[in-house]
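In the lab's daily routine, each protein ends up as an entry in a very long ledger. A line of letters takes care of the sequence, but it says nothing directly about the fold. The fold becomes a row of whole numbers, each drawn from a learned catalogue of backbone shapes. The protein below has been through that process, and both of its lines are reproduced in full:
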Amino acid sequence: MKKKFLQPYYLLFILTMLLIVITIIINYNSNYSFDPEYIKELPWNKRTSYIKQKELLIKLEGKNYFNDEDIILINQLISISTALKDDKTLKIAQKYKLDFLLYSIKNLMNDNSIYDYINNIDFKTKIQLFLLSNNNNYISNLIKNMNKKEKLQMLFILKIFYPEKFNNLKNLFDKKDIEDIELIIKYINLKGE
């Protein structure tokens, strides 16, 4: 009697198990991005979208900061909330996205290699980055690389809106410039503007 090496049903069983494992691995590693229009056209009940929305909220709640992987979840949450017309959750998701962006800007400003790039951008963007990051190293580097007009503008902003920073950084400015800005501020106060 001749013995078969592998019975056909063993072969089918092994292939089925292999396909299941491959499917699980592919689904686990893939990122899904939801389009609000796509969610609206789904044939499932809205309950499934709400469940997905709640899962995303649970994953994101209580985090002090968000990383690059979390922004995918935040974008999914925004898409689902928009499709479901859930303004409360949409506002939460948008706040999370803003927190992520601010955290990213602050981290970027702490990297010293960024200063080479920052010197080539316009003055308004430099000021906006300072206001968003509130980084002392950034502002001192920025002041050192400014022209006369930009220094006066920065001095004016610091003197009016950030007096404590002005006191810490006034050694980076010329004494004459500080006196000029103080005269301008006195003039504005006299005019009442």
Observations:
- The chain has a mean pLDDT of 78.
- The two ends are 107 Å apart (CA to CA).
- The chain has two domains: 33-108, 116-191.
- The first helix runs from residue 8 to 29.
